[in-house]
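Q: Can someone sanity-check these two? First one:
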Amino acid sequence: MKKNLHIVIIEDEVATARNLEYILKEVNPEIQIVKILQSIAEAIDWFTLDDGDFNLIFSDIRLSDGLSFEIFKQINIRKPVIFVTAYNDYAIEAFRNNGIDYVLKPFDTEEIQRTLHKYDTLIADDSKNGQDKTESLLQELQHTTKQYKKSFLIHYCGRLIPVDAAKINWFHTANEIVYAHMADGRQYVVEFTLEQLEHELDPTLFFRANRQFIINKSAVDAVEYFFNGRLLIKIHPLPQEQILVSKAKAMHFRKWLDQ
């Protein structure tokens, strides 16, 4: 692994930035964190004045003041970027296909070690090629738009019923069957798994709360603190069982609600 690696972190969640810094130094004690930046505005100011004494950037995508791509639109940063995100969509897949990696939240030591190894093999050995790849991927990602599912054609009582995805309050799986629940209490069987729906639904509207539930933001009535750092989600119509978000996903859920 490359020694004396100087890294800039762009991340608005303090706990996540500290965790990333800890893991990076655990993987390679010689890594130096040059700067932790918490917003687009702060990053633009810092990169404008900085002399480029760093090798690699770890950057979240969704920051408190917008998408981090805006930084790279305004500042010509000729250094490789590994994007950190809680959203796995086609744009992220474009990064994988073109050689710049991403880290999916919540990440662990093994994932960080893997992505640093990929940096070594794809970027460090050919810095000019790496710079060109970074710029190409930034342009591609900025122009890549995921088309999310807007409606479902559902079989119901011998008929086909079109249902607007945004009007579905939550999805629930039981006995390997997935149900879509509407605001008026109706429920329909949908021919998708929750894993498939997680990729098909707009992540700004829907959140995978746990293994059993995907919930619509508009259906959330309240959030309560639960045992061991978990969150208890109150939605309408109220399901028969509790909807709990794990401690590991709690921060991402709160950020999703606060967008």
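And here is the second, same format, sequence then tokens:
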Amino acid sequence: MQPIRVLIVDDHALFAEALAARLGREPDLVILPIAADVRRALALAGTEQPQVIVLDMTLGAESGLDVLDRVREDHPDVRVVVLTAMSDLDTLVQAVRRGAVGWLSKTEGADLVAGVIRSAARRGGWIPPDVLGEVLRRLVAGDARDGGGARLLAELTPREREVLQCMVDGLGRAEIAERLGLSANTVRTHTQNLLAKLDLHSALEAITLAMRAGMRPGSPEG
């Protein structure tokens, strides 16, 4: 498996350097030069070609949301995991809307951070389980794209809709493969295809769109 190129964006030098040193001990992670501000982050995103950005929400007087906006616009294939001391749900929801696929507290251990980075690189993501339900509720209730959800889902093939229903049901890739009688690689391909058709960046966004369009856990597929 190819090593995962990781860009840490954090203006707290000691924390960022300690995190880089710890993650650098993981054999499958390549840690790129650290960025301490928005300008440096965007420059390195262009030159170093990271697969995953680990992003703090507070960058001095700047906001990590600005990085999210620019990364989504200029580097749509890059996955962003937020690692922050903030616990504000509104900011979490804004970050997900702007393309973040993970949200972690800086109090979490390095093993979990490394695991979420790996998940993000595989088109997965992670939101703290204790707030996931509320985050989904706010995304479903507040997104302005309500009217287009059903129309977008109509572009999916029957099999892609089945995979999406499994995602809404809370199944992981291996569980989806078992339910549908497919290989894990085939499930991954269907997932990537449906995300591309829906112009989305994460499973969480796809589940939110599906729920806005009327899909519910346990509903018949298709």
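A (reply): Looked at the second one. The CA atoms of residues 106 and 172 lie 26 Å apart. The first strand starts at residue 4 and ends at 9.
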